[in-house]
Amino acid sequence: MIALVVIVFMAASSITSQLNAQTEIPLQDVVSTVRPDRVSEDRDAMLARLIKILKYGGDHSGLGKPTKVDAVIALGLLGDERVVSILAEHLVNEENNSLRLQIVRALGWIGSSQAVPALEQTLQDKYPLLRKQAADVLKAITGRDYEYDKTGLPDYTKMRELIQSAVKGSPSEGVQGGAP
Questions:
Q1: Does position 96 have pLDDT exceeding 60, yes or no?
Q2: Residues 146, 49: Cα–Cα separation, whole Å
Q3: Strand ranges in 58-126 using DSSP code E only, listed in sequence order
Q4: Looking at residue 23, what is its pLDDT?
Q5: Pick from 12, 62, 72, 152: CA 20 to 30 A from residue 36's CA?
């Protein structure tokens, strides 16, 4: 469904760029330009472009060019299981932890059991938030709880207590209540 929406959007963009800006195009004309026999073809081309951006794109956006993170998000939203092995490979080999977190999220959106081995490997990662995200995605995919080293994760209970005491106006260790 998402792919069809993307293809309809691409067709609409193509049509409007070719016509005078003041010409109105009824929605049914745009939708009729998307032929069912081309949906798979267009989807394959879109996946190929996103994979190319993931492999060779930049980490930071510049001049409006799509980044690796943009490609990962799009691949995850498309939900095509054919890209799981590529995302898993990047998860294991990528150095950018922010991108790796997004890859784990995308694998979760796809929801394929093919991602389980790479996600299980990620449970041993040095980056604590990545371990937690991988465990959450694995649970969503398999329905099982996964153990992982929680060292380095923020202590949300302590943070919650500090915030509550600050809101109540009773200063706690290192926290001042009220406005300065």
A1: yes
A2: 34
A3: none
A4: 45
A5: 72
The reported pLDDT for the residue numbered 61 is 65
Minimal CA–CA distance to 101: which of 66, 76, 64? 76
Q: How many CB atoms lie within 10 A of CB 14?
A: 12
Question: How big, in percent rounded to 5, are the helix, strand and coil portions of the chain?
Answer: 65, 0, 30
% of the chain with per-residue pLDDT over 70: 70
Domains along the chain with CATH numbers: 57-155 (1.25.10.10)
What is the residue whose two structure tokens read 């930049």? 58
Amino acid of residue 175: V
pLDDT in tens, 109-145: 999 999 999 999 999 999 999 999 999 999 999 999 9
Cα–Cα distance, 134 to 87 (Å, whole number): 13
